[in-house]
């Protein structure tokens, strides 16, 4: 699993902005990231479905609805 993962779903208006922000952060930090649609996983949909998009850092929830770019960069560099 990449250090960063973005949990999204179809028809999520916040997901496009989060995707762009996460792309900027990953490029700056030089890390890989991926995106997972929670509609394809019942457990993920149950846990995160009401707060999408969700950013996971090293498998743990880092934030939801928006990407706090400065905080995420700081936490990536600290880890």
Give structural attributes:
79 residues; alpha+beta; Glutaredoxin; 24% strand
What's the gist of this structure?
This is Glutaredoxin 2. The chain is of the alpha+beta class and 79 residues long.
Characterise this structure:
The chain has one domain (4-78): Glutaredoxin (3-Layer(aba) Sandwich), CATH 3.40.30.10. The chain is of the alpha+beta class and 79 residues long. The mean pLDDT is 95. 43% of the residues lie in helices and 24% in strands. Strands 2-1-3-4 form a 4-stranded mixed β-sheet, covered by helices on one side. It is globular, with a radius of gyration of 12 Å. Strand 3 and strand 4 (60-64) form a beta hairpin. It is built from 3 helices and 4 strands. The protein starts with a strand and ends with a helix. InterPro entries: Glutaredoxin-like, Thioredoxin-like_sf. It comes from Stackebrandtia nassauensis (strain DSM 44728 / CIP 108903 / NRRL B-16338 / NBRC 102104 / LLR-40K-21). This is Glutaredoxin 2. Pfam families: Glrx-like.
Task: Describe how the helices and strands are arranged.
Blueprint: E1 4-8, H1 13-29, E2 33-37, H2 42-48, E3 54-57, E4 60-64, H3 69-78
Parallel strand pairs: 1-2
Antiparallel strand pairs: 1-3, 3-4
Helix pairs in contact: 1-3
**Could you tell me the radius of gyration in angstroms?**
12 Å
How many runs of DSSP E, i.e. beta strands?
4
Poorly predicted sequence stretches spanning 5 or more consecutive residues: none
Adjacency order of strands in the biggest sheet: 2-1-3-4
Number of discrete domains: 1
Please indicate the percent range of residues in DSSP E strands (runs of 2 or more). Answer: 15-25%
CATH architecture: 3-Layer(aba) Sandwich
Overall pLDDT metric = 95
Mass-distribution shape = globular
Strand count, sense and barrel status of the largest sheet are: 4 strands, mixed
Helix content: 40-55%
Assembly state of the chains shown: single chain
What's the CATH class label? Alpha Beta
């Amino acid at each position: 699993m990449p250090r960063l993962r973005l949990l999204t779903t179809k028809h999520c208006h916040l997901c496009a902005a989060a995707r762009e922000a996460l792309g900027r952060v990953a490029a700056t930090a030089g890390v890989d990231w991926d995106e997972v649609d929670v509609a394809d996983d019942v457990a993920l949909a149950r846990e995160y479905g009401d707060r999408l998009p969700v950013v996971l850092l090293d498998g743990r929830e880092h934030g939801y609805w928006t990407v706090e770019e400065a905080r995420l960069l700081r936490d990536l560099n600290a880890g």
